[in-house]
Amino acid sequence: MGMLDAAMDADRIISATLNSTDRPHPLAEWVHTRDTAHMLAWALTGTRPPSFAEIPSQRRRGPTAASPLLPVRDRSAFFEQLRTMAEAAPRTDPRGVLLHRQALYLTSYDKSPEAVAWTAQALHARRGLPARRGWTPQWAEARSTATALARLGDPVPLLDFIERAMAGDDAGEAANLNYWAYWLGGTPLPQSDDLFMRDRRLTGWDPVTLLRGLTYGLHHAPGFVDLYAHTMWALLTAHPWLPQASGVLVRELAKRTEHLLDAGGVSERSRRELSTVNYVLRDRT
User: Fold this and answer.
1) Cα angle vertex 143, ends 200, 120, to 5°?
2) Which of 15, 38, 165, 173 would disulfide-bridge 49, Cβ 3.0–4.6 Å?
3) Average pLDDT for the chain
């Protein structure tokens, strides 16, 4: 039941994409969250949301679908329309910018060779955005571009984004923490644009909820682990009391950071930040 709102949001996005109307598209009306993205991925790729991993599939009488995966024809039409919307979205107003960013990101879910080539070309056309320093009006688009490229196997823009648009810049660090808190469901109200990311006071979300989401989302994938590592380091720097908040959570995070350090394959920055995080966690527990 906790995923019902995300499922309804995903349904609205799919319906609005497959059945075009004159009304604003949902991707232009609010910033979607990780839960919504996971529900969309379930319908578009068949990948079950991680939050359902411990829930056994119910057996029913007769032939039933194993997932809410859309028929091939509908999936093809959905992605084709997404690409059209991403190209046509006006870049002169906040709604158009939001529509372009979110539609382009979702096109990376289409793994067909032609679609991957199109998405890669569209993303690489924006490849210079992640290299800009500090906060800019294109910060959210640059982040989305970098993470989508990492999903396609190119982690370099994301590493550049961390180095230039976040590290050492208070506005960039705050924007990243605010976005993560929203993405992981830690912000109670939906946001209609990206301006909430500019709150440098870091209000409106619970640091423990963000720490929990980052801990259990920490995974070793090209590019993404560096973003997780830097965000974890920045969160503990902003809220040094967090290691005392939950002993179970802190022990789990310490175990996961040790595993990443032992496994290797992370950037030098991430190794330093993970080492700092692990030391702080061990020192406070």
Assistant:
1) 175
2) 38
3) 88
Q: pLDDT tens digits, residue range 227-284?
A: 999 999 999 999 999 999 888 999 999 999 999 899 877 889 999 999 999 999 887 6
Measure Cα distances from 253 to 64, 210, 216, 256, 263 in Å. 39, 13, 8, 5, 15
Terminal CA-CA length for the chain: 35
pTM: 0.89
Do residues 176 and 166 touch, judged by C-beta distance below 8 A?
yes
**Exposure string over 180-199, b if 16+ CB within 10 A, otherwise e:** bbbbbbbbeeebeebebbee
d(CA 147, CA 144): 5
SS3 annotation, 6-18: HHHHHHHHHHHHH
**What is the gyration radius of the CA atoms in the chain, in angstroms?**
19
Residue listed under structure tokens 């301006």:
195
At 64 the pLDDT is 59
Question: Which 8-state DSSP code applies to residue 146?
Answer: H
Q: Could you give the CA distance from residue 35 to residue 31 in angstroms, rounded to a whole number?
A: 12
- pLDDT of 56 reads 66
* pLDDT tens per residue across span 180-225: 999 998 888 889 999 999 999 998 899 999 999 999 887 656 568 8
In whole angstroms, what is the distance from residue 149 CA to residue 145 CA? 6
Torsion of CA 31, 34, 35, 38, to 10 degrees: 120
The rounded distance, in Å, linking the Cα atoms of 108 and 251 is 35
Element (H, E) at 123: helix 113-124
Q: Which residue has the higher pLDDT, 125 or 143?
A: 143
